[in-house]
Amino acid sequence: MKNFVLLILLFFSQISFANSTLGYDPGPDPLTSEGKGYINIVNTVPDAPFIGKKFFNGKDKFRYPFGIMPWRGPTDKNSVKVLVIGQDGTHIAEAAGRPFTGGTGGR
Fold first, then answer.
1. Could you give the C-alpha distances from 72 to 28, 44, 97, in angstroms and in order?
2. Structure confidence by residue, pLDDT tens digits, 43-82
3. Are 48 and 89 in contact (CB under 8 A)?
4. Sign of CA dihedral 39, 58, 98, 100
5. Which residues contact 11 (CB under 8 A, 6 or more apart)?
6. Which of 24, 26, 70, 102 registers the highest number of CB atoms within 10 A of its CB?
7. How many CB atoms lie within 10 A of CB 57?
8. How far apart are CA 57 and CA 70, in angstroms?
9. Residue 25 backbone dihedrals phi, psi, to 5 degrees
10. What torsion, rounded to 10 degrees, do the Cα atoms 55, 60, 61, 66 define?
11. Domain ranges, ordered by start, for the chain
12. Is residue 93 within 8 Å of 106, Cβ to Cβ?
């Protein structure tokens, strides 16, 4: 049992140090024209929760995924080879807060 616990601790410590930046996404670079353009597009997205509360007696009837779900990935010039535009996000994308994180993005 003692060896098993030691093995589990060793395993999880290796995972935690494997790639600490794997989930980090710095977003678009506001110093580039591409980054500024992307930021401007995202800033025009309506605030769906605010609209829902304003028009439905304070109740939030809209969830963010019903509106535009901006893509967050590499925005450097010539860094994207294929851009996929799809429908509204699934429950997995909604939970992750990022599109194409479920089965579609994993393929």
1. 8, 16, 10
2. 887 777 788 788 888 877 666 655 566 666 666 677 777 6
3. no
4. negative
5. none
6. 102
7. 8
8. 28
9. -130, 110
10. 110
11. 21-106
12. no
